[in-house]
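Bit of a strange request maybe. I'm writing a small parser for structure token strings and I need a real example to test against, not something I typed by hand. Could someone generate the tokens for this chain?
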Amino acid sequence: MTAGEIVVKPHEGTIALRNGFDKVWKALGKKGEANLRTDKKGTPFIAKAGIAQKGPHRGRRVILFFRNGTERARSYECCWGHYVNCNRTRIGMYCKTLDAYIWKEVAT
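Reply from user aminoacidic:
Good idea to test on real output. This should exercise your parser:
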């Protein structure tokens, strides 16, 4: 580690979400995917429900976040509600936007 380097820990920070992981994952499974934009910067992304194919979470449900056709982040159930996922990737902006979208979709 170099001087001034910030170390991000898995599951660092929390974000207030209205929906649980199960509800969001099932809703995405029914829709196929959601085309969204982050609320602050308006960055477009796609969210999809899937099943992890390898690694320590193999066989577990996952929500995948894509930008420009490339996977940028993922949230497993244990990561939902945290700003940072297991892999130390920031996911809060994606989860917050997806959560609001599902809340609105289910309510209407």
